[in-house]
Amino acid sequence: LRVQNKKLYLATFAAVLGPLSFGFVLGYSSPVIPELRKINDPKLRLDSNQASWFGSVVTLGAAAGGILGGYVVDKVGRKLSLMLCSIPYVFGYIVIISAQNVWMLYFGRILTGLASGITSLVVPVYVSEVSHPKVRGMLGSCVQLMVVTGILGAYVAGIALTWRWLALLCSFPCCIMLLSMSFMPETPRFLLSQERHSEAIAALCFLRGPHADHDGECRQIEASFQEEELNLSEFKNPSIYRPLLIGVALMFFQQLTGINAVMFYAETIFEDASFKNSRMASIVVGSIQVCFTAVAALIIDKTGRKVLLYISGIIMALSTALFGLYFKMVPPNQNNSSNPDVWLTLKSASPGTESSISWLAVVSLGLFVAGFALGWGPVPWLVISEIFPLKARGISSGACVLTNWIMAFLVTKEFHDSIGFLTSYGTFWLFSAFCCLSVTFTAFYVPETKGQTLEQIEAYFRRS
């Protein structure tokens, strides 16, 4: 079947303005923290510990947003949830723009994190439920593509704008999302779960065009319904707990690949490789993410989800192993300006080698970011939007988003301690081991969902 109506792409674009906002939130701290560490106002100036909290407190807000999003997405619907999450986005940026002290900065970041958590749950569900199976992989991957585009946009805009003006710019995508989503339909699956059949037909007419078999698709969706309400006792049912465990594990492995740790080291690595403009280096990294996430979006419906997870996991295992080798061979750089506390913990056996093998760090960094963007960046978010039964979609997606953001917080905050305990090369070799485990997990437990309807995927878990 071919998708006849381009309005499906319009609805997807309106929804993925949410992940674009989410990306701006994540990217905001990178250009802003150096500025706030040098600002003249002592009430707003960040020390090392405050800077670390300014960057990571977003993940705590997002974890709370995952819990809240899991509730509202089933109660008020996918469309209204997306529109409502614009409120904490805008209010959070207003607090940051008007901040008079560090605590107001924290509060603004928590609010934007809360909105990001809701967005990261609701948008994949909305996109998967409005999409046709033939293009669901591509459109679902656009969620992560817009996240990395937002990160890159914040990096680029941060070169020219001060932190208050950058916050103002970051508030625009969510305002546009609020306006555009008001013209988009609710998902047919949610409408049918609420017994709003005529509205579901109208939504399908918008999404599929006037000549598609709307009644037939409605019957297929309704045939998958079992009960209106989900009881906690039903989590004993393998058709509910198996996809939940797979989703939680995917989120767990996504963070333990070491993506946040590698991004933490990016500026330091580029400095030692004689890239003096660290902001331009960040833009290079962001551009690699955008390019390879776009590649993943274009090929995912042909290659399948599992193939990309295999390729991605193997590339990341290799690159983090090379990172470990680099840090094993290179001595600490006492004069490095980016992360001097971290570099003091580096262990080395070969002084004087850094200039000759700095290329190894740069190649490893580029390889890792490209590998992550190709598979373990977009695919877990896509898979969790596909595998949950309709009645458990909200609470199961909430559990996965909560897992992801808690792990992101732990990896970000505990990375320095792990370097002190395991040494830097030991830490990266541990990440390499987790990447290998992620490939093994994919091989044995992750189902291939390419080309299947959501109802067929749900039926697969019921049969197994």
UniProtKB/TrEMBL annotation:
Keyword Cytoplasm in record: no
Pfam families the UniProt entry points to: Sugar_tr (PF00083)
Record field: catalytic activity: L-dehydroascorbate(out) = L-dehydroascorbate(in); D-fructose(out) = D-fructose(in); D-glucose(out) = D-glucose(in); alpha,alpha-trehalose(in) = alpha,alpha-trehalose(out)
Residue ranges of every copy of the Major facilitator superfamily (MFS) profile domain listed in the record: 7-450
Main location: membrane
Keywords in alphabetical order: Cell membrane, Glycoprotein, Membrane, Transmembrane, Transmembrane helix, Transport
Protein name, as recorded: Solute carrier family 2, facilitated glucose transporter member 8
Taxonomic path: Eukaryota, Metazoa, Chordata, Craniata, Vertebrata
Encoding gene (name): Slc2a8
